[in-house]
Fold this protein.
Amino acid sequence: MVEKSLVKMRGIDGRICEEFSTKYYGICTIGGMLSAGTTHLAITPLDVLKVNMQVNPTKYRSISSGLKTLWRDQGSSSLWRGSTSKFFGYGLQGGCRFGLYEYFKKFYSDILVDQHKGLIFLLSGASAQVFADVALCPFEAVKVRVQAQRHFAKGLVDGFPKLYAAEGVSGFYKGLAPLWGRNLPFSIFMFSTFEHSVDFLYRDIIKRKKEECSRGQQLAVTCAAGYAAGAVGTFVSNPADNIVSSLYNKNTNTISQAVRQIGLLNLFTRSLPIRFMLVGPVITMQWFLYDSIKVLAGLPTSGGAKTQQSSGRINENSSIAYEG
C-alpha cells in the first residue's frame, strides 16, 4: 500500500518532487530533523559525561573513569539525563541547519554567480546556523543544567518552567552568543569540508561523476565526507563548547571570565577526545540518514553548488558531484 502511494507521488524520473521546490525544502527539513534528533538521542550518555567533564574536570578525568563515577554516584538513569531536550532541541536545530542550508545554497548560488563555490558553502552554512541556534538555545539551556546539576530538574517538562521561573526568558538565551561562537565555526567548516570532500572523492578517488555511481556508492561517499566534516568542525568549535557549559552552570558569568578560568590551552584540549568520539560518528550518521531520506524521495545525494539559470545550465563554478 505504501509502495503504491509512493509510486503515485513520484514523477516520471522517480522523484517525489523537483529540486528547489517548496516540497523539496520540506523534505530536507524533515530529513534534518529526523537525522539530528535520533543521532543526538543515541549518544546522550556520552554527552552527559562530556558536560560533567567540562564543568568538573577534577572529578571526571577520563571517559572510562568518568562513566564509572557517574554510574556509581548517580545510577544508570543519570546517563540519560537531558535526552528529551537533546531529541527535540537538536531535532529542531537539524531541521533548520539542513533545510535552510539547502535554501541558502541555492539563494547564494543564484546571486553570486561568478564567485568561488567555497564562498557559497561558507555563507550558506553560517546563515543556516544563525537560525538553527535560535531554535536550539532554550533546549540546550535546560539540557546542560539537567545533566550537570543533579537536583535541578528531571527533564524537559519540569526543567522549562523551573528555568523560566528562576531566570525569565533571558535564562534560555544566556548562552546564545557562545552557542553561535561554537556552532557557527562548526557549521561553516562542517559544510565546507563536506562539500569539498565529496568533490575530491568523486574527482580524484572514484574518478567518476556521481550519477555514474550506484546509490550505495554515493551513500558511502556521503559517510566518508561526513566523518571528515565532523572531525574538522569538532576541533574548531571546542573552545566555545567549553565556554557554553561553564556559563550555563554558573561556573562563570561572562565569556571573559570563562576563558580566564578554563585557560587558553584547556579551551582547545578539555573534553576534546570525547567530543571526537561523539561528533565524528554523529555527523557521519546524520549525513547518512539525511541523504538516505533524500534517496528514498528520488533526490540526489548531497554535495556541490547548483544554480537554476534561465538558460537551464549549471553554473561553471558548480561541483560535478552535485549533478543529478
User: Anything to note?
Assistant: The CA atoms of residues 87 and 194 lie 24 Å apart. The mean pLDDT is 85.
